[in-house]
What does this fold into?
Amino acid sequence: MDQILVYADSLTWGIIPGTRQRLTFEKRWPGVMEMELIANGASVRVIEDCLNGRRTVFDDPYKPGRNGLEGIEQRIEVNSPLSLVLIMLGTNDFQSMHAHNAWHAAQGVSAIVTAIRRAPIEPDMPVPKVLVVVPPPITRPMGPIADKFEGADAKCLGLTSEFSRMTTEIGCEMFDSGEVVSASAVDGIHLDEKQHFDLGSKLATVVRKILGTP
It folds into this structure.
């Protein structure tokens, strides 16, 4: 069985835009991906590690534990053996309390990939492959999270090109989610239920190729 770890934030946790509610597993893109992989004959288990507000390598000044680099090596240990890790982070790096741009987010993800590759797993367990998923571009933040993400639409410009340059440099697979989904029209940040389905379906195809499964 191939175990796949999804390491991400609220876009993947499945927050329903404009609310504090959560989509059920089968409606979140990791669940959609798992079900489609299994339906196509793959033997897989998808493990979600998705935290609302998680940054790449930066701290949230108001909430502890949102630095995505801290503890990632232990998460790889805990969940090994892993065949693949999917990382979809960067959106929260552009919150209004940060002066970060697309380059900073890309370098943050690079640091996480490096940490995954050096994690102290048990002897003879595989170093997992990594797939970096570029979050969809932020549009105009709206609703209760508007102040939190003020200016984020400008800060995230060039995210795909920076992620592409970074993943090429470190030899890592990349998929641009913006090819199939966009930020929700409700809040300009998260994914609607239909977008979760579309992303999960597409990533099932991408993951099959990476793992060499049917």
